[in-house]
Amino acid sequence: MVMRLALLLVSLTACAQSWPDYGGGPDAAQYSPLTQINRANVHKLTRAWTFPTGDNSKYFFNPVMVDGTLFVLAKNNSIVALHAATGQEKWTFHPPADTKIITNRGINYWESKDRKERRLLFCSNHQLRAVDALTGKAIANFGVNGSVDLKDGLDRDPKTIALVQSTTPGRVFEDLIILGSATNQGYGSAPGDIRAYNVRTGKLVWTFHTVPRPGEFGYDTWPKDAWKTVGGANVWGEMSLDVPRGILYAPTASAKYNFYGADRAGANLFSDSLLALDARTGKRIWHFQMVHHDIWDYDDATAPKLITVNHEGNRIDAVAQVTKQGFIWVFNRVTGAPLWPIEERPVPKSDMPNERTWPTQPFPTKPPPFSRQKFTVDDLSPYLSPADRAKFRDDILSARNEGLFTPPGTRNTIQMPGNNGGANWSGAAVEPGRGLLYVVSKDLPAMLKLEPEGTAKSGFNDSAEQRGQALYQVHCLNCHRADRRGNPPAMPSLDDIALRMSREKIVNAIRQGVGPMPGYPKLTNEEMDNMMAYLYNPARARATVPAGTNGADAERYLSGFGFMIASDGLSPIKPPWSSLTAYDLNQGTIKWQIPLGDVPHLAAKGIKNTGSHYPKVGPVVTAGGIIFTGTRDRQVRALDVETGKTLWEVEVDAALEGMPAVYEVNGRQFIVFCAAAQVGLTPGTQTKINGAYVAFALPAEK
User: What domain range is 501 assigned to?
Assistant: First the structure.
């Protein structure tokens, strides 16, 4: 017994010193118990080492550190092992030459009980792969010739599946790697099954159908046989594990198509739900649906946060889920019972043909929301140009604008927070034992408008144009609209782009990004050819109508517009555009809220505390009383957990997305940031990325 206790203590100590998985560990707490760096000495932090990414690609990778080795993504999507104390390279694994899509937010680490086998697991080009963590060599006997095809086993023709792999890693539990997926955004997307594979063999162990099959719980919340045609309800974001209990917590996305659901009448379980699954079997333990029949793309991307709180005199293990709407849902981790009442409230009704919106939506009574949930002319930014102010004022006054859950239609509809607002991936951290939660959010209103889509009812025509249209729906439609006419000047028309730009310039713009448009460097050459086929021949691209589902033979609609952006690339709503909010979940109250970051060109004019624009950054909390985070304004910061006050900040060479890693090596604590994103989204600001992993530590003792 004494020996077992000693081994357990050694294991816990090693875990405390390492950063063994995305988000710090399987619980996704984004928390470190290390205390060497604290509020009293954090101002002394200096650069310990820097490792350049070695290319001009955008990275937002969360490093993994085990036994003094730090694993990062660099050098054209290669996995690089570094000495965690010095940043010196140990080995590099180069993925297959054609790799364009990779799990670029993080990877998973697994080791056998005797620690003789150690593996890194990641996905690329819709294949699950394994690499020896000690040598950097691919494991050839994993799956078939070293990989597992993620398009197999979905009960769809793999040739019709354009996208299934997420760029977010899964979760390792015992000898399983559990994966979500990123399906297309359009009609006929891949199903969002959650699947578990054996880490040694790659064999599929269990599947949970997020669109239920006949005889499965929730089947009656869809039209008959919807599982054959409807896609999505997937976990493209982050999952969490309660390892001692063997429970997986998985937040799902909306069903597809995102903004029009005539072919999927019903509440649509298990879309937009928090699922608690048996991690060994995939069996459902409990669930809660946060949006019924979602037509707003209000999926949840942030990992559910495992936390222990004092509630009504009891110590309760809870799980908290933050959302795009600005809500926080808090449940008993074991039973699924909410800690505070949840009310079903009436919401506006859709006026679209064949659309049957759900009459009510759930609202948590506590804690209060962290984002603004309305956008009126009184909320317009003081930094808008006169022309922009007049335009957005007219847009708001002429739009349907009834607050949360205003359904999109053929008339412009205001959405606030927008479908890219609220909390996003890596956006929350917790102090698990104190019951405190910290969430990064952005206020970014959207304008939705449904427009008819031309359809062909003669069966699937797997043409390059059609595949290109599917990619357009995923990456471009929200800003450039279904008719490709955009929302000038920030989001120009693409309707006549073939007459205005050469193919080379279009490809470069898509890969590198232009103005407020982010780049998509991970598109394969084949996908780029398909996109070009569609943009140069848009009239020839058609999509099929799923047969046999409610409303399927009716005209279908796609949404134009997307998030609202002024001509200078900024949001039209008054700042702050991003915030960091601290919650005491023992009481269900807000402790403090601050703007997070600045916009460089406004800060240069003395306009500060606006919050950075369009952030996708994650905080990390330490037992030293520090919140570490980076922002798009190239600043890395240490904030006081009690007040949000900035205790230390320093500028790095590139903008930041994602979250840092915190660990200890040889008695010295390090914080490593991936600084390899674009500085801003304003027109003309895109420059070469001098990306690097930057490690900070207290000065070494002499």
Answer: 449-563
